[in-house]
Amino acid sequence: MKFTKEEINLCKQVVKKHKKPIEFGDWYANCHNNVLLHNNIDWGDLNITHKTFGFIPLWTISDCLEFFDEKNCRILQINKFFSRTEIYINPYQVPGSKSMNLEGKTPLEACLKAVLAVFEG
Q: In 3-state terms, what secondary structure has residue 61?
């Protein structure tokens, strides 16, 4: 799986709001922004390694959808245009927020921006 620099940067912002442990099968970036898949059972939970070596858990669209489900946020609409994706989230389910129209160059980028908006809402 390939992640853009912007997606990695958004994941770094998400990590400041929510500490997601890196588990077997998860994608993460190391301090050099190399994207790696946690596929070594002997490593166990990388939560300690994340704090020690600066590994950043990389969220996927599935992670974002699980997060929205946990927060009871409903995605109203996803529009995909030629070079961007827009996501609309129900504003009444996020306290203090207005209508959320978040866009990104990739669907994952738009989802990560929506996750950050929910944290800030």
A: helix
Query: Is residue 14 domain-shared with residue 54, that is, in the same domain?
Result: yes
3-state secondary structure of 75: strand
Closest CA to 62 of 94, 117, 25, 95: 25
- Cα–Cα dist 63/116, whole Å: 13
Q: Are residues 75 and 92 in the same domain?
A: yes
The boundaries of the domain holding residue 24 are 5-59
Side-chain-side CA neighbours of 87 within 13 Å: the count stands at 24
Tens-level pLDDT at each residue, the chain (121 residues):
789 999 999 999 998 888 788 888 888 888 777 888 877 655 555 555 556 567 889 999 899 888 888 887 777 677 777 777 777 776 666 555 555 667 888 889 988 988 888 887 6
pTM exceeds 0.85: no
32 and 67 share a domain?
no
Q: How far apart are CA 73 and CA 87, in angstroms?
A: 12
- How many Cα atoms sit within 13 Å of 57 on the Cβ side? 25
